[in-house]
Amino acid sequence: MLKRHEVLIKQLADYRHEFLEAVSVIGEEEADVIPEGYQDNIRWHMGHVYVNQYLWIQHLTKEEIVMPRNFIKWFGFGTSPLDWEEEIPSLDYLKRLLAIQPFMIRDLYGERLEEQYPTTESGIHTIAQVLVRTIHHEGIHLGNIQAIKRAISASKVYD
Considering the entire predicted model, what is its pTM? Predict the structure, then answer.
């Protein structure tokens, strides 16, 4: 693996570690709270980050990535926790999937990060570019999780 790719994969793992640190103190009940003014909950953001990373790679490479059953239905773009009808994954399960995902990506795609694919509508044509995009996306959702945590804490103060 090229040195620059090692750095990218390390950043992917480091940012994921920060993401997991932010949700480490969240309990099952708190993960499902949708504060006033919000459309999603912490559990949805966690699942969405996981799904989004794989969907972008799949969209680029056209190679199917096997994810747990119903994950796209629950956590894909445009989905909402308000639509969940069946039992959803536990926080521990989501945390485990999120923790291993950077290493799965390294193992599956580490030697192919600069391989050229047909350019997407976003101008992306390598897996390395996908990872830059998904790291940014993960940061947005980390910010949303932190905002939801603050909203939950504030609501407890006023209850």
Answer: 0.94
pLDDT digits (tens, 9 = 90+) for 64-73: 999 999 999 9
Quick: pLDDT tens for 57-92. 999 999 999 999 999 999 999 999 999 999 999 999
CA angle 26, 27, 29 (to 5 degrees): 125
- CATH number of the domain residue 86 falls in: 1.20.120.450
Mean pLDDT of the chain: 95
Between CA 74 and CA 25 the distance in angstroms is 23
Enclosing domain of residue 49: 3-158
Tokens of 67: 């994810």
Overall domain count for the chain: 1
